[in-house]
Amino acid sequence: MSAPHDPKIWGPPDPPLQLIARNLTTRYLAILVDGALGLVLLPFNVSHLGTSAYGLWALTTSVTWYFGVLDLGYGSALVKFTAQYRALRDRIALNEIVSTLALVFAGIGALCFAVTALLAWRVDWLFNIDPGQTRTAQLLLLTVGAYLSIRFPLSVFGAVVLGFQRYYLNNIASMAVSLMIAAVNVAVLSSGHGLVALVASTTAVRLLSLAVFVWNAYRAFPGLNVRPALFRRARLHEVTGFSVYMFVLDIAAKLNYSSDNMVIGAMLNTTAVAVYTVGLRLSQVAQNLTNQLSAALFPNVVDSDAAQRHDRLRTIMVQGTKLSLALAAPLCLGLITMAGPLIHSWVGPRFSAGVLPARILLLVVLVRISTSSANLILKGAGQHKLLTYTNVATAAVNVLLSILLVRPLGLTGVALGTLIPVSVSTVAVIYPAACRRVGLPLTYPFAHGIWPALWPAAVMVALLVLARPLLAHGLLPVALHLAVGGLVYTILFVSIAMNADERRLYWTRARALLARQRQTPAAA
Question: How far apart, in whole angstroms, are the C-alpha atoms of residue 101 and residue 95?
Fold first, then answer.
């Protein structure tokens, strides 16, 4: 093993509180940048490409996004084992694991391109697309497939950055790449080029940006050494024991929340895909903005379970639910209330058919966030098998219901096909199992976690509905309307829904964090 604090190998140590602050702030900035760019680019792209071509782009992107499951759960496992051997300061083991998985991912990348080529060959048979779009769809699939085949082996470097908890390095790089891609997007379409040129040029930017993520890995871990000669079968076996469960969970998640466009593309048309994508984008932004707390709480769940601290698990269950919902409830319910004016101002009345599906998808996000702490308890406290089986069953029912409901109910049926199984599995399995695991009655987390975060949102929604007749047309008035609603929610939640002890606790923690951040430079 290496010297415990050798910065030439392990990099300079970051103060923990500053590291947390950098990671979270840059992550939220990256989400806001992506959300703002998506808000601006979606109507721009639709107007220049046309609804059908944009739908074809969304459809092919949905298909290739599924290839993420081809990492077989090794991506998540690599982050876990990187953090583990970093803590042990075992440089040899860490480099062997990274090198082993880099070789495995190289093979997966080749398989990915082969699968993409097969899909491109029969794309007209798989999806209901116009004959004139077949050649374009094939070129899009091959372009993105080639990118993924290169990205797979290089993804080990991104996992190293995450395992060293230097998220902010990749967050900053992601923001820069997103801005460059947006600029290229606007330049290509403004100059009169079409969809194939757009995807080819933006993919070229993505390929070049991979070098930045490789560089970040060596900044985080100067002792990194990735070589084929370091491949070890024993390391592959070690990682596989954990990755198999992550693989199944990843498949279930993608089926649950990303199969809709494929069902629509197979049974309706690419125009319907474009209309549905508007609501899907809104729900994805809401999900990304509200699920960061859950990711931060996961190590605490693991530590509490290992130390048999059931009191801490109960606190995470109740307070994690309350705080997660306090982020999600005003955003999701506000967007549900204002979905009509928002979509009309954003992309125009021709996307009116996407308003109701958007509301349903936002409701799915709210259900997911309401049980995010319960999911963490099951995943990190020894109930991951139950969580896996439940998610697989939910995904299967989701796809089946979407197929059954798409013909009679259209896009609304597809959205309901997601909402129904997610809600049932949440209420009937995940939430009760988490309560049993931490030793709480079912009513306790609801009374102390869910209800205090929901009732201020009900007041906010009532005010938004009453004030909506006064709303002027345009994105800015809608945004201001939502901002006022969010302010009302915040005042009610902090002043009434939170009790005095909770306010005192969170204020004390916040002051301590700020004080330590100010003291760190002087101490250094």
Answer: 10
